[in-house]
Structures are given as structure tokens and as C-alpha cells.
Amino acid sequence: MDLAGNLDSIRKRIIAACARARREPPSVQLLAVTKSHPPEAVAAAAQLGLNLFGENKVQEARAKIPLCSGKLHWHFIGHLQSNKCRDAVALFEMIQSVDNLTLAQEIAKRAEQAAKTMPILLEVNVAGEASKSGYAPEKLLAELEAINALPKIEIHGLMAVPPWSAEPEKSRPHFQRLREMKERCEKIIGAPLPHLSMGMSGDFEVAIEEGATMVRIGTALFGPRTGAKAAATAD
Asked: Is 66 helix (H, G, I), strand (E, B) or coil?
């Protein structure tokens, strides 16, 4: 695996996508998805200048993060169960996958106990897939003010995982929908939401063109794990 080459290619593609969208490249953060990759892979990526990493499972993160440099920043990007909130609040600087009010309340409780303010993103199921977690758009709008009122919680934006497709353009309508949802949420709470976390290895350029501020990339950076589709969806 040529990690340096992969990263160089991704960075060039981010710059090109930003140019097409008339955006500045620093407006897009690259989050390296390290699910199933060892601390050594994290260290190698950090040596190349990456400092933002994402994990999908609390149990794996609990074992891995203490073995990595303390200068790195970690976001939780997987489905979070309420009984894992205490560890998630302790381990991560942001939880990107908040998809219901009960979960947000538990995160707020654990953050208060830890004397910590927890930035979160609200995950939206933009395609209404039964197999995926994430807020239905109308339910998110209905619960938004209640979440925003919770102590020790800061809503920083929205996140989505569109349906997997071999054709990146098929993700574009979903990214557009998430951007529109962010605008509706901003009107409800009367404040800007700085982040749109959307776009993975197969479609991050389209996501950037549609306003992504954070792209979550694993396979294109670290290489595939098991099977083409599994690798493409693992980010």
C-alpha cells in the first residue's frame, strides 16, 4: 500500500473539486477513517500530516486511541448505542452520528458528568433507507429545538451516508438534500451550522461540489479490506 501516494492523490482531487466549486481547499477537512486499521497505520498517516481520524466502534476506539499520539483529533462516526455514550464522550472530540433525542439526552448527561461540552452532528437518513440509522428529515426538524436546548451539547451541523453506488453522480441529490436540510435547521435555531460531513472514498468530490466541509475517507487512503463493495461502503 502506498499511503503517501494515496494521500497525495486525494489531496489533489480535493483541490480540484474545490476549484470547480469555487471554494478554498482549507474549507474541506479530510477525516481519515481508521476502522479495522491498527495504531501503526494511524501513526503513518499522522507522519504524513493528517491529524483528524474517525472510528466507527467505541470498543475498537477504546483499545486503539490510547496507543496513538495524544496530538490527534478523533471523531465518532458510527452508530452509537446509549450504553456506550460515557466512553464516546471520554474518547472523542465530536460525535457525528446523533440520530434521536434520547441519544442526545444521554450524551448531554455524560458530558455534564465529565464537565465537558460535546460538539455533535445530527445524522440524517437522506434516502430513507430502512437498513440505515439516521434521522428522518421531518423528525429531525421536530426535535431540533429540544436537542439544541440540551446543556453541554453543541450542534455543529449534519452528517449523512447516502446509498452506495458505483456512480458518484448518483450521490449528488442526497448531498443536495443534506445541504438544504442544514439551511432549514439554521433557520429554526437561528444560528449557523458550520459543518456538513458527507462524502466518502467513492463520492467525496461530488460532496465537495455540493458543500461538504468534512469528507470521511478510509478505503481510498488505506486500501480495501474485504471485497469491493464492502470496502467502498466501509468509510
From this structure: helix
pTM of the shown model: 0.93
Q: What CA–CA distance (Å, rounded) separates 22 from 163?
A: 27
Closest CA to 121 of 145, 146, 97, 100: 97
- The domain segmentation of the chain, as residue ranges, is 3-233
Question: Is 3-233 assigned to CATH 3.40.50.1950?
Answer: no
Q: How many CB atoms lie within 10 A of CB 18?
A: 18
**Nearest in space to 175 (alpha carbons), one of 190, 163, 191:** 163
Are residues 163 and 138 in contact, defined by beta-carbon separation less than 8 angstroms? no
Please answer whether residues 235 and 218 qualify as being in contact, where contact means their C-beta atoms are separated by less than 8 angstroms. yes
Taking only the tens place, the pLDDT of each residue in 20-74 is 999 999 999 999 999 999 999 999 999 999 999 999 999 999 999 999 999 999 9
From the DSSP assignment, how many helices (H) and strands (E) are in the chain?
10, 8
DSSP 155-178: EEEEE--PPP-SSGGGGHHHHHHH
